[in-house]
Design a protein that fits this description.
Blueprint (H helix, E strand, L loop, with lengths): L1 E6 L2 E4 L4 E9 L1 E12 L6 E6 L5 E3 L7 E6 L4 E6 L8 E11 L2 E6 L3 E6 L1
Length: about 120
């Protein structure tokens, strides 16, 4: 199995910044893509940003120009730098990994970290 542990959430004022980090561990053979999803109260979980093993990134239109995703393949970590935060960015942020492990290829999720942006 693969475990994902997130850190870095919290409360910040609008216009501020936060950095989320996620570390993967377990019987990992290869981590393909890693990403961050978010779920606001009463809404469906949505993609915020994703990065491939080769470093190709994709962002939701709502975060382009404000969020930056990066990863360290050697450490199996992924970070999300969030700048110019808005109240509408308030959500639980989940780390995701598409990983090949000893049991095959599967999708894994972290436990989520709360990000709250006050106006």
């Amino acid at each position: 199995q693969v475990q994902l542990v997130e850190s870095g959430g919290g409360l910040v004022q609008a216009g501020g910044s936060l950095r989320l980090s996620c570390a993967a561990s377990g019987t990992i053979v290869r981590i393909n893509s890693m990403g961050w999803y978010r779920q606001a109260p009463g809404k469906q979980r949505e993609l915020a940003a994703v990065i491939s093993s080769g470093g190709i990134t994709n962002y939701a239109d709502s975060v382009k120009g404000r969020f930056t995703i990066s990863r360290d393949n050697a450490k199996n970590t992924v970070d999300l730098q969030m700048n110019s935060l808005k109240p509408e960015d308030t959500a639980v942020y989940y780390c995701h990994a598409d990983a090949t492990w000893y049991g095959g290829r599967s999708s894994f999720w972290g436990q989520g970290t709360q990000v709250t942006v006050s106006s």
